[in-house]
Amino acid sequence: MPPTMASTGVKECVGEEYVLGTVILSNGVYKSMEHRAMVNSEQERISIAMFFNPKFEAEIGPVTSLITPENPPLFKRIGMEQYVQDFYTRRKLDGKSYLDQNEAPEWELSNTNAVLHA
């Protein structure tokens, strides 16, 4: 698994797919970071993975306070249930990454006000 920074800000070694939601919510501000740990033969090391998800009824997308005319949404809004289904089935990716597949349509990028009030 590639090393990443978990959404809690705690460095953990998790798969890239687990931080996709953080990238979407932050409108691309937060990126995965390399996990670097010093190996110590004298002391044990413990890693704890923690995951939190919204309810299936929720809609996820870039946080509206991060969206401005200068910083339009990079990703479309999607229902959490659909996000989970798409994520685990990897349907309709057509060779694209999950983030690429969920980029905001061109009309949203050119009409930020429509997204802000949707």
Automatic annotation (TrEMBL):
The keyword Disulfide bond does not apply. Signal peptide: none annotated. The keyword Iron applies. Keywords: Iron, Metal-binding. InterPro entries: IPNS-like_FE2OG_OXY (IPR044861), IPNS-like_sf (IPR027443), Plant_2OG-oxidoreductases (IPR050295). PANTHER family: OXOGLUTARATE/IRON-DEPENDENT DIOXYGENASE. Gene3D superfamilies: B-lactam Antibiotic, Isopenicillin N Synthase, Chain. GO terms for molecular function: metal ion binding. Residues 24-54 form the Isopenicillin N synthase-like Fe(2+) 2OG dioxygenase domain. This is Isopenicillin N synthase-like Fe(2+) 2OG dioxygenase domain-containing protein. SUPFAM superfamilies: Clavaminate synthase-like. It holds the Pfam family 2OG-FeII_Oxy.
